[in-house]
Amino acid sequence: MPSSDQPILEVKDLEVEFHTDSGVVQAVNRVSFDLYPGETLGIVGESGSGKSVTNLTMLGLTPQPPGKVVGGSVKYDGQELLSLSQKQWQNVRGKKIAMIFQDPMTALNPFLTVEEQLVEVTMLHMGLSRAEASKHAIELLQKVGIPGAEKRIGDYPHQFSGGMRQRVMIAMAISCQPDILIADEPTTALDVTIQAQILELMKTMQQEFGTAIIFITHDLGVVASICDRVMVMYAGRKVELSTTVNIFKHPRHPYTMGLLSSAPRWDQGEDELQAIDGQPPDLLNLPTGCSFNPRCQFVQDECLQQTPPLITLDEQPVHQHACIREIRYLKENR
Q1: Which CB contacts under 8 angstroms, 24+ apart, belong to 77-83?
Q2: Model's pTM, two decimal places?
Q3: pLDDT tens by residue, 284-294
Q4: Which of 17, 74, 80, 206 is the most exposed place for a label (fewest CB within 10 A)?
């Protein structure tokens, strides 16, 4: 495990395109961020904002073609990941960086028992014998709260409920005690009780192993409860990044403000919720200037002409945003 004062993951100017029959989609546009050991980074944004593609690319799982990494760098503990061969990836995926996929029913192999899928990971990465791997698999299922693990381990995925399948996915992800865990909306289809249990399980795992977590979600309530920092994405770009407290108390980008205003909070009534006008942009036909300008209540002439640069505010904790209105305000008040 790298030192906690140095990032374990460094993503710089990542660019990913998809070549389709209708044209080229720039799914990820010069996205940069760091991840530190033991922290939880939340990535939020509407569907199509580039959250999942960013993280799949970091694991070398973007389908090529139609996808193509056209620029940038992804470094784990100083090692460049984008240049790894498929054989080299086998020493990283699952062992160093693991992922909980959004839909456990499609991520788990329906033709193999839970035991077969769990032991495969630990036999490959940890060199365990079949007997050792089976014992370890039962311990993992017990750790994630599956009752009767000794009997359930021989069951197939369809014999588990949605919440239990998600627990199996978490057990598989933490089986080799990875340094980084990427959780792609792991609680989306679950009821609130199971959701709370899984979030608590992830917190416990983080405290036990010191795992760094990237948490992809639409749920700002989850972000508030589990994340240390938050990165907001829109139309493939990072538009804001800061600590969770800073994002909730002092949002700078109008899109972030819109997300917060549209989410229910304990200190406001339901009639105060405000939806963001319009629809997410068509990535094949992005507007000129700021991609958010058709939906922004603060739009100015400059917003229609130029893409706002990402700036870092001269304050602690570090706060980055990409909004011309905010940039102009800062210049006028220096």
Answers
A1: 77/2, 77/8, 77/179, 82/57
A2: 0.87
A3: 888 899 999 99
A4: 80
